[in-house]
Design a protein that fits this description.
The protein is of the alpha/beta class and 253 residues long. It is built from eight helices and six strands. Strands 3-4-2-1-5-6 form a six-stranded parallel β-sheet, sandwiched between helices.
Length: 253
């Protein structure tokens, strides 16, 4: 990765989220079935996860399967679930070798029992790793997450453990599936589409958005580095103006 030397390791995004789009179109452009694209997308996952770990990223969230994806043709959903099970089973030794810890966010109960079991085993087997936190968003959507959070808050209000007037942003965040993770500083979408597709809508309020034409099966470490360099070239103001940020910069002695 020639561009890697240009990356400022002191200004890395702690958390990168990726919408892995373009598998189906990549396959169709090659005259193949959509599942062919998903199969080859696994190699991209492996390569990018390895790259993120090598660079020093702390958290990487991959939009693996949305709640809306359940509406896809049955053969594709079945194939994706089988691919998920096989991939998790095969990748756990690699995750452990690279000190990567696995997490899952989403409507876990919607997944087939065999997938849930494999994921639980993988989460347990990688639970002591201290390197990159790899977060798979499975059967996930932001609207589902927010509604789920509101339901749980309502239950606690009814039980008398939460006062409605005391609910703050910080308390609300405690009910999200991402409670244990920092918000992403960088969100990447592959595949040439310019939308966020119901992904981490609450959490990406101040994320830098990076869109690339590259289909997910063609996305590699080099593409990840390019996205990070683009991120590092931006000024993150969080509602402030540039002059304020300059005044806040520590003075070198």
């Amino acid at each position: 990765m020639e561009q890697l030397d240009k990356v400022d390791k002191n200004r890395l995004p702690r958390h990168i989220a990726i919408i892995m789009d373009g598998n189906g179109r990549w396959a169709q452009e090659k005259g193949q079935d959509r599942l062919f694209g998903h199969f080859h997308g696994v190699e991209s996952v492996r390569n990018v996860v390895e790259g993120a770990s090598e660079i020093g990223i702390e958290y990487l969230t991959l939009y693996t399967f949305s709640t809306e994806n359940w509406d896809r043709p049955a053969y594709e959903v079945t194939g994706l679930m089988e691919l998920l099970v096989d991939t998790i089973k095969n990748e756990v030794p690699v995750l452990n070798k690279n000190n990567i810890r696995l997490h899952v966010i989403g409507d876990f109960q919607m997944l087939p029992a065999i997938a849930r079991n494999e994921l639980r085993d993988a989460i347990n087997e990688t639970g002591r790793n201290t390197g990159l936190n790899l977060i798979l968003a499975l059967s996930y959507s932001s609207r589902w997450e927010v509604v789920n959070a509101v339901k749980n808050i309502a239950y606690d209000v009814k039980a008398g453990t939460v006062e409605p007037g005391a609910i703050t942003q910080e308390i609300f965040q405690q009910y999200l599936t991402t409670v244990c993770f920092p918000d992403p500083e960088l969100m990447i979408r592959t595949g040439g589409e310019f939308r966020v597709s119901n992904f981490l809508l609450y959490q990406i309020a101040y994320s830098e958005l990076y869109f690339t034409e590259a289909r997910w099966p063609d996305f590699r470490k080099e593409n990840l580095v390019q996205a990070i360099l683009d991120y590092q070239a931006r000024e993150r103001r969080f509602g402030k103006i540039s002059a304020q940020l300059q005044q806040e910069e520590p003075v070198a002695h």
